Amino acid sequence: MDHEYWMDLCLKLASQADNRIRSNPKVGCVIIKENRIIGKGFHEVYGEAHAEVKAFANAKEDVQGGTLYVNLEPCSHYGKTPPCCEKIVEKEISKVVIAMEDPNPLVAGKGIQYLKDHGVDVVLGIRKREAENLNRIFLHYIKSGLPYVFLKGAMSLDGKIATKTGESQWISCEESRELTHSWRGEYQGILAGIGTILKDNPRLTARGNKGENPIRIILDSSLRIPLDAKILSEKGKNIIFYHHGEKEKLEALKDFENTELAAVSLKEEELHLSEVLKVLGQKGISSIFVEGGSRIFDSFFREKAADECAIFIAPLIIGGEEGISLVGGKGISRLEDSYRLKEWTAQKIGEDFLLRGRKETLCLQES
After folding, report:
1. In this structure, what DSSP letter does residue 21 have?
2. What CATH number is attached to the domain comprising 84?
3. Alpha-carbon distance 341 to 363, whole Å?
4. pLDDT at 361
5. Which of these, 306, 316, 343, 336, lies nearest to 153 by C-alpha position?
6. Which residue, 266, 331, 343, 251, is CA-closest to 299?
7. In angstroms, what CA-CA distances link 113 with 28, 41, 160?
8. How many domains are there within the chain?
9. pLDDT tens digits, one per residue of 216-245
10. Which residues contact 195 (CB under 8 A, 6 or more apart)?
11. What is the pLDDT of residue 367?
12. Are residues 221 and 183 located together in one domain of the fold?
């Protein structure tokens, strides 16, 4: 079996990670000896054992002289846990096969150099493209300091998300909604506008998810959120971004222990989206899941702030000029300013079709 085979197993292990790793990368590790697996593991929880340490702990026999496969360069610094490259040398691993370097400035080739300096044979670049794709959230955050934005919508064939009376439950099929809940569990934060809160009063949780419920992020420029909104009594954390509001409402919201208020400026009478994303990045939130509504979608698309989007298209027609479109708000004047998908896929989910794509071609590291 070749390097690609074992690295594919690492990537499969790494993909099991959910939002409990927070801003950390998804990493899987496999240790082999005589062409058979003797240990494997993946990073599961932020601040706890890394993939390499888990693989050592799960080893069925002595790993001395074995080959270790890992999809990201082993860390070389002391953080929440000790350096993995030191553990690899201590365990007398003879060869380490790595998919890609870690762009984190705290690592950035230092782990590889440490291994080489201590006589470990290093092979780099196996399944690099696949490894970059798996950790696109981590790579984006390390590169920009901003959260990776995944935008999800569901609409009819004629682009509507609700009828003229506002009825919207449910446009997408049950399978699409189940997939949506599984996605929520992959992101640190879930963002919605105050319009969604006022209309649907959602809980914004990830049902059936093994990970943590994402941090709920609400854009509410004038603090219109009702004090009996479900998210305020739901377990987990809320961050409400606002510009102004009544003093009494401001003080009342401060009494909710699970809720943080963050004041930002306005841009064209809307909350300044760049400021919102900057604040979230500074709080260590590396990824957010955006669920609308239509004005929020418009803001993210106009600002080209959505890194990836997924749109469910249901086989029904709503019609009418007063039906609510997926993207509302101000829109654009020129086609050259439109948000375009550079990489996209289409698949059938139950009765719906799912279009999914990214803002730009993934090209995060030099070869």
Report:
1. G
2. 3.40.140.10
3. 15
4. 46
5. 306
6. 331
7. 21, 23, 55
8. 2
9. 999 999 999 999 999 999 989 999 999 999
10. 293, 294, 295, 296
11. 37
12. yes
Structural domain containing residue 113: 3-139
How far is Cα 21 from Cα 149, in angstroms, rounded to an integer?
A: 17
Say if CB 261 and CB 253 are below 8 A apart: yes
340: Cβ contacts below 8 Å, ≥ 6 apart: 359
Annotated active-site positions, please?
52
CA dihedral for 132, 14, 78, 31, sign (positive or negative): negative
Interacting residues of 193 by C-beta distance below 8 A, sequence separation 6+:
218, 219, 220, 292, 293, 295, 296
Tokens 């569901």, residue? 154
pLDDT at 159: 93
Residue with tokens 């249901």: 314
Whether the predicted model's global pTM rises above the 0.70 cut: yes
Partnered with residue 215 across adjacent β-strands are 189
DSSP string, 113-137: HHHHHTT-EEEE-TTHHHHHHHTHH
Vertex 101: Cα angle to 96 and 102 (nearest 5): 115
What's the residue count for the chain?
367
Residue corresponding to tokens 């949506």? 180
Please list, residue by residue across 23-62, b when 16 or more beta carbons sit within 10 angstroms of its beta carbon and e when fewer do: bbbbbbbbbbbeeebbbbbbbbeeeebbbbbbbbeebeee
Is 138 in contact with 26 (CB distance < 8 Å)?
Answer: yes
Residue 260, C-beta contacts closer than 8 angstroms, at least 6 positions apart:
237, 238, 239, 240
- Cα angle 45, 25, 231 (rounded to 5 degrees) comes to 60
Q: Which residues pair with 309 in a beta bridge?
A: 151, 357
Residue 27 and residue 157 share a domain? no
CATH of the domain at 166: 3.40.430.10
Dig out the tokens for 57 from the structure.
């702990």
Instruction: Judge residue 251's burial from the number of C-beta atoms within 10 Å of its C-beta, 0-12 exposed, 13-18 middle, 19 or more buried.
Output: exposed
